[in-house]
């Protein structure tokens, strides 16, 4: 699974304005520190070395494996929800306006719509390879209370009032999507406290939204970025949506266990991590605090349980048809054809999805996080998913790909 559903972030060290080269260098170092470690890239065909080149290269739909087999009707709700936002952009206006006139009951007409209005671009890594890591995420369900009582001893917090966020794009457009977080101490902005510092102090007292009955499940709720909490006292289910984050770089607790020799990398799934904590309860805090990142939430009503949480595009995610991507390489809101395999399997998983979310650990051109939805099956699938895959982004005909490729 992806072990981070967070936006990009950097800790702030002072109020002193940094020069752009220094910011770019710092950004590169911090981003590198936040990345999950992918499995080894797929080997190129024997005798054919991958060639570095543009990250996006146009191809024909006939070159997209599985394009003729996917039931595009299942992807259409995600396409339509994104188009409601993308239609405001001039380069997307024609394609999204045409989507309103398509007979969605006719699979052939749906396929003709995409082939008429879009060009598929295959995505490549910087080294010329076309395979990347595909993980999964889901919307968890926890049990909680609005009061600290009985088994409900782990708080989930709303964003603190002293958390400062600076959008770098307002000063340097080149750093779009990158933000600094910290707090003011005297005349300086310093890094916000880490997970361990926050949980071992009363710094967040009074900001509790709910109390839940499992600290490990609370940790994974932060990893996923949003989830549901059932309140037995009122028989109410609420949604906790991502509100903010403390600005500390994300570090994988699965990687921590691997580095400590507690489990092999191939076994570092969410399920096995939870099993390790049950077997080693005295080391629970050590493990969780190995990740200094900490997420804050906001409460939302749950009018339609069938709809997923809102992604980075601001619209509800569609189970098994929404993915998180790196917006520096893939336009947020674009349809993407994904060719990978089912979790822990060689069975093909090839379908049209929509880039509707982002994540701090989702970086690079050929990198995706697949949204499985809500429930136990979604959790099992997401927790086990660490596959290799390829991506084709569909851009409106005539639109210049990112970077002018």
Report on the structure:
This protein has 2 domains: 10-39 and 139-300, Barwin-like endoglucanases (Ribosomal Protein L25, Chain P); 56-136 and 308-404, RlpA-like domain (Barwin-like endoglucanases, Beta Barrel). Helices cover 23% and strands 26% of the residues. The protein is built from 10 helices and 18 strands. It has helices at 20-34, 76-86, 90-99, 107-117, 195-199, 215-224, 253-259, 270-279, 284-288, 376-384; strands spanning 10-11, 56-58, 118-123, 132-139, 141-145, 154-157, 164-167, 179-185, 188-190, 208-212, 227-231, 236-245, 295-300, 322-324, 335-341, 348-357, 368-374, 386-396. The strands form 3 sheets. A 6-stranded mixed barrel has the order 4-17-14-16-15-18. A 6-stranded mixed beta sheet has the order 6-10-5-11-12-13, with helices on one face. A hairpin with a 4-residue loop joins β11 and β12. The protein starts with 9 loop residues before the first strand and ends in a 9-residue tail after the last strand. The relative contact order is 0.22.
Which key phrases capture this entry?
405 residues; 6-stranded mixed β-sheet; 23% helix; Barwin-like endoglucanases; 6-stranded mixed β-barrel; 26% strand; alpha+beta; Ribosomal Protein L25, Chain P
């Amino acid at each position: 699974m992806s072990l981070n559903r967070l936006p990009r972030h950097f800790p702030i060290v002072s109020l002193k304005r940094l020069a752009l080269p220094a910011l770019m260098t710092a950004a590169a170092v911090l981003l590198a520190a936040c990345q999950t470690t992918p499995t080894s890239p797929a080997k190129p065909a024997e005798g054919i070395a991958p060639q570095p080149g543009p990250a996006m290269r146009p191809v024909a739909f006939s070159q997209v494996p599985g394009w003729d087999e996917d039931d595009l009707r299942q992807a259409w709700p995600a396409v339509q929800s994104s188009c409601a936002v993308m239609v405001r952009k001039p380069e997307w206006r024609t394609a999204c306006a045409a989507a309103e006139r398509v007979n969605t009951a006719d699979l052939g007409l749906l396929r003709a719509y995409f082939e008429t209005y879009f060009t598929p671009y295959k995505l490549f890594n910087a080294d010329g390879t076309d395979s990347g890591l595909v993980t999964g995420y889901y919307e968890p369900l926890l049990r909680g209370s609005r009061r600290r009582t009985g088994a409900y001893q782990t708080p989930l917090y709303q964003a603190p009032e002293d958390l400062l966020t600076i959008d770098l794009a307002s000063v340097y457009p080149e750093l779009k999507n990158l933000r600094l977080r910290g707090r003011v101490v005297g005349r300086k902005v310093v890094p916000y406290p880490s997970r361990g510092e926050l949980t071992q102090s009363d710094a967040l007292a009074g900001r509790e939204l709910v109390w839940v009955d499992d600290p490990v499940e609370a940790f994974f709720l932060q990893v996923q970025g949003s989830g549901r909490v059932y309140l037995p006292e009122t028989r109410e289910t609420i949604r906790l949506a991502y509100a903010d984050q403390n600005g500390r770089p994300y570090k994988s607790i699965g990687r921590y266990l691997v580095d400590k020799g507690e489990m092999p990398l191939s076994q570092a799934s969410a399920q096995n991590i939870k099993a390790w904590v049950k077997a080693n309860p005295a080391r629970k805090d050590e493990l969780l605090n190995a990740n200094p990142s900490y997420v804050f939430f906001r409460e939302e009503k749950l009018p339609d349980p069938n709809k997923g949480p809102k992604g980075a595009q601001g619209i509800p995610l569609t189970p098994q048809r929404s993915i998180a991507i790196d917006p520096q390489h893939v336009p947020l809101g674009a349809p993407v054809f994904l060719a990978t395999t089912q979790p822990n399997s060689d069975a093909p998983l090839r379908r049209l999805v929509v880039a509707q979310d982002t994540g701090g650990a989702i970086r690079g051109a050929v990198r995706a996080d697949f949204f499985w939805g809500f429930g136990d099956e979604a959790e099992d699938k997401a927790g086990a998913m660490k596959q290799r895959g390829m991506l084709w982004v569909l851009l409106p005909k005539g639109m210049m790909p990112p970077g002018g490729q």
